[in-house]
Structure formats: structure tokens, C-alpha cells
Amino acid sequence: MIDGLASASHYVDHLGAVLAALPPAVRGGISETPGASDDPILVASYGDMIRARDAGRTRIALMEHGAGQSYGGRNVRHGSYAGGMNRGAASLFLHPGPHPANRDRAAYPQARVEVVGSPYLDTLPQREGTPGRVVAFTFHFNGAICAETKTAYPAFFPAIVKLVGKYELLGTAHPMLWRKGRSGKQIADRYRQYGIEPVESFADICRRADVLIADNTSAMFAFAATGRPVVVMNAPWYDRRVNHGLRFWDAAEVGVNCDDPDTLGDCIEQALEDSPAQQAKREAALSLVYAYRGGASQRAADVLMDWAA
Length: 309
Fold this sequence. Notes:
Layout: E1 2-5, H1 9-21, E2 27-31, E3 41-43, H2 46-54, E4 60-63, E5 90-95, H3 98-107, E6 112-115, E7 134-138, H4 153-161, E8 168-171, H5 175-180, H6 187-193, E9 197-198, H7 202-208, E10 211-214, H8 218-224, E11 230-233, E12 256-258, H9 264-273, H10 276-289, H11 296-308
Parallel strand pairs: 1-2, 1-3, 3-4, 4-5, 5-6, 7-8, 7-10, 8-9, 10-11, 11-12
Helix pairs in contact: 1-11
């Protein structure tokens, strides 16, 4: 059996599609605990890889649960990111595209590294109903790793509040920010306070939104991969002199870039127009992130079967 280990619901979202593509005879379940078995196990986070290792699991596959963003431009080597330290417990890495795969391949030459695409894309719904002017936004949690992992919330949320009444606004956030809230106050309550509808589920965002405003999150690429426009919030502390790849800055033109919160409304209008030139930029950026835009679940399942044999 090939098991799944997920300590958070957004990891389940990524693992579920892969396990569902496995033959029933080898398909294990997704658990919050690694258990005592030494069956092969699939995880989607660094923390779960460590938990599986510490439980005695010796056959661990680590699947990237996002776009594969890392912060090598600042020589960040945290294990949560491709190419980081202490990821050697995994003997198989599954990645959406070549950028993170190349980093893990260089850091862990003894491991098997495969580019399969993002299974999560296989599960995302298209826009339901008639397209319109529904604007969703999301913020990253305030990461302490480097300037680019910090949220753009302080710089951009006041500008978003000014849009209330001009658009139907849907507010979401990275799962870690949604759970922890800000200054002890739940982020959903803060959105409601300003007349913004909070929507926790990214799948629901995909069903309802016409454009997504985002700072630093794989959600911007996933949403763009459904064929819809994105506005990219660039906080003042994001340094363009430092190139990490992908979001910073090779694939940043996945959407209309907004460097000044005062121009956010204009950027949204430009994104909603979704000109052929902007569509071409989006496609070019997505090609850097995802080697494949479909079939990743089965591709990952096939690799797992071969690795576990």
C-alpha cells in the first residue's frame, strides 16, 4: 500500500488527487499520523516528511504542494523549500516544474526527482455562471524567512477596502494566515468588518471569481492556469534586485503587476480587460511554473508505483 500523510487540509487537497489515481489494490488512506507501518508514504510538506521519518518510515516521497517557490537569491536553505537542508529523508521528489526539481536534484543527487506537473490543477473548478466583475484577493502569511516571504497586507489592504462597493469582493488567505489570524483577530472577521465576503475555500474562489489579486502564493499560478487574469501585488519590501526565480521575478508577469496600492483599481480594470498581450505573458509565466497543465495526478501515481515497486 502507498499511504498519504497530511497534517493540514490544504495538504490533503494535493495528496488526494494522486492517491485517487492509484490502483485500488495499492491505494492507502490519508492520515494525520504516520503510523508504524513501513509502507511507502506520500507527503506534501517538509514537516510531514520529518514526522514520517521520526516514526520510522524509510520510503518517503515528498510532493511539492505549491508552485515550487524557493528563496535561493538570498541563500535561504530552509527545508520547506526545494534545495533546502534536511530533506534527505525523502527518496523521491515530485515537482510541478523544472525550477524546484533542479534545486532538489542538485542538493540530493542520490534521490529520484521527477517533474509531473501539479495534481492540484486536476481538481480545480472553472468559473461557474456568467463571467462578470467578481474580484477575489489573497494574502500570504507573514513569513520570517526573508523579505519576500512577508505578507503584502499592511501595504495593500487599505487599498482593497476602498474597492468595497465597486466590485463584488471575496477575501481569502493562505491557510496558515487563515488559521492564525492577525493580532489575535481572525482574518475572516476582519474582512467582514469592512464589508468583504470571507471565502476560505480556494475551490470556491475558482468557482466564483473573475480575477484574483495575490501577493506571494502558488494560488496565483493555479488560478491563472484556469485561464483567468491575476493582479500581482508587489509590496515595497520585495526587492527586485534579488532574483529567486518563479514569482520573484521570472514568472511575475503571470498577472498585471501592481507596485503602488493607489493604482490597484486601475490594475484590476487592466486585468479584467485581459488583452491578448496579457494573455501571452500569463502563458509564458505559467510555462515556467508547470511542465504540464493536466494529467499530473496520473503521472504522479505512475511514478509512485514505479518507485514503490
